What we know:
Shape: globular
Strand content: 25-35%
CATH topology of the domain at 7-93 and 161-181 and 191-256: Rossmann fold
Number of strands: 11
CATH class of the domain at 7-93 and 161-181 and 191-256: Alpha Beta
Structural class: alpha/beta
Radius of gyration: 18 Å
Distance between the termini: 40 Å
Number of helices: 9
Strand order of the largest sheet: 5-6-7-3-8-9
CATH architecture of the domain at 7-93 and 161-181 and 191-256: 3-Layer(aba) Sandwich
CATH superfamily of the domain at 7-93 and 161-181 and 191-256: P-loop containing nucleotide triphosphate hydrolases
Low-confidence stretches: none
Helix content: 25-40%
Mean pLDDT: 95
Amino acid sequence: xxxxxxxxxxxxxxxxxxxxxxxxxxxxxxxxxxxxxxxxxxxxxxxxxxxxxxxxxxxxxxxxxxxxxxxxxxxxxxxxxxxxxxxxxxxxxxxxxxxxxxxxxxxxxxxxxxxxxxxxxxxxxxxxxxxxxxxxxxxxxxxxxxxxxxxxxxxxxxxxxxxxxxxxxxxxxxxxxxxxxxxxxxxxxxxxxxxxxxxxxxxxxxxxxxxxxxxxxxxxxxxxxxxxxxxxxxxxxxxxxxxxxxxxxxxxxxxxx
Length: 257
């Protein structure tokens, strides 16, 4: 384990207006960690993740990215240390799939520097990893929602940041691509990266997470190992509906009672 965490959070408090989303949150993310955030709609999962990414300021507390606050590093340096996959996709200008994937290399280039052959090879490898190797010349505006989501993941992989912040990364993906995407993120974790992801399925959190953060929507949070916190009792309270734990061949799922 690295002596310096990729992300360190101390005494974090996040609010939207007067509504408290989390209070006194402390956590550290090291290489090899996979933290999944769970909670009902409106609990503040995306807002918390945006705060961790430096896109909004916390109400209280400190966020250190590789030992520095966001104020102590410029946006380009921060983007080399953490990548961000948001929920919204905007493509106001025409671009090919390869050009969109290459956007992930921008933090690594100088102001007037163009992408080189090595950058192109990285982008092409990422496109192949998400199954878009034959789409390189396609206009991004012709892609389906699921294809556009896979392209966003490819761009994030091309960025090569050691910390990946993923806000509902499975949006628009069918089941096989959901699992494929999670397997990609897990491979990066085994190679020394880390991720923090907002998911909706506790069974996938169990399968792909090492830690879980439960957000109850009133400022209360719990954080710990997946096998400790992912219980039917906690999840029933979290989602406001009774859940049952089902195990088959070593796989765990939680289903409505």
